[in-house]
TrEMBL record:
Assigned EC number: 2.1.1.-
Molecular functions per Gene Ontology: RNA methyltransferase activity; S-adenosylmethionine-dependent methyltransferase activity
Protein name: tRNA N(3)-methylcytidine methyltransferase
Taxonomic lineage: Eukaryota, Metazoa, Ecdysozoa, Arthropoda, Hexapoda
Top-level taxon of the source organism: Eukaryota
Species, as recorded: Anopheles maculatus
């Protein structure tokens, strides 16, 4: 049996053991070639399409934790505090349709995948805003649209490369109240982080909020990469051709501030997992 001892919210990055430092040094012995790195960038959409073709909706778990971590999603309902990283900018389906039409609250999930965030929100009864959902992968968007809860009266899913201005073909400047960016930015090339966050800034109304969560520096997944998978500092290629970046807390704050945001909350979340049977304590 495996269990975790709860989350520790802190501004301190994980402290590496000597063995972990050696693992990171080993990764530098064989890097992804410049040619291969460019090919991965050019074929990013293809790799995510293949990912969803292979896994469909079976890979990621539904995120029923989002309203617990991000109280902003409760949209005016009574809510407690949040351990989330947030960066602010300066009822029934019929009810939601009216809210959207009358200039009510609107949410965009960037990198929606197969809807593991938006559909749990609907299942849990949080229908007080119109939901937009976009993803780089057209196949992922197709899976969202085939979901039994998908209803264009209160949501719209569309394929989009958020690193470009393509999103503005669907959404207007200053039209959104909340944007979620959860385990998405890490899949984007670091050279495009700022343009991506700047696009999100343009989409938000004054007072709007970004809810961000992603892989933290020295996550166990980062330490597990073998030589031949490192593209650049803290940026890696997975076996399936998708990529993953690992963020330092200060780096995230600086990125959002550079795009014009004010940072409300930004922390590491450390989670200790123990499995005595497997002799695992990480």
């Amino acid at each position: 049996m495996a269990f975790n001892l709860g989350d520790v919210v802190t501004e301190n990055a994980k402290t590496l053991s000597d063995a972990e430092k050696v693992k990171l040094e080993e990764q530098n012995k064989r890097m992804v070639s410049a040619f291969q790195a460019l090919k991965l960038e050019q074929e990013a959409r293809k790799h995510w399409d293949l990912f969803y073709k292979r896994n469909e909706n079976r890979f990621f778990k539904d995120r029923h934790w989002t309203t617990r971590e991000f109280s902003e999603l409760l949209c005016g309902e009574e809510s407690g505090g949040s351990d989330s990283s947030a960066a602010p900018h300066g009822g029934s389906p019929d009810h939601v349709e009216n809210i959207a039409a009358d200039g009510g609250k609107k949410l965009l999930e960037v990198g929606c995948g197969v809807g593991n965030l938006i559909f749990p929100l609907i299942e849990d009864g949080h229908r007080d805003y119109f939901i937009y959902a976009c993803d780089l992968s057209p196949r992922a968007v197709e899976l969202v649209q085939k979901h039994n809860l998908y209803d264009e009266r209160y949501m719209k899913a569309f394929a989009c490369d958020i690193t470009t201005e393509q999103v503005f073909e669907t959404l207007a400047d200053g039209s959104l109240d909340i944007v979620t960016v959860i385990f998405v930015l890490s899949a984007i090339h670091p050279d495009k982080f700022l343009s991506t966050v700047a696009n999100i800034y343009r989409l938000l109304k004054p007072g709007g909020v970004v809810l961000f969560r992603d892989y933290g520096l020295y996550d166990m997944a980062q330490l597990r990469f073998k030589p031949g998978h490192k593209i650049a500092e803290n940026f890696y290629m997975r076996q399936d051709g998708t990529r993953s970046y690992y963020f330092a807390e200060q780096e995230v704050s600086e990125l959002f501030r550079k795009a014009g945001f004010t940072v409300l909350v930004n922390s590491y979340i450390h989670r200790r997992t123990i499995n005595p049977k497997e002799n695992i304590d990480v």
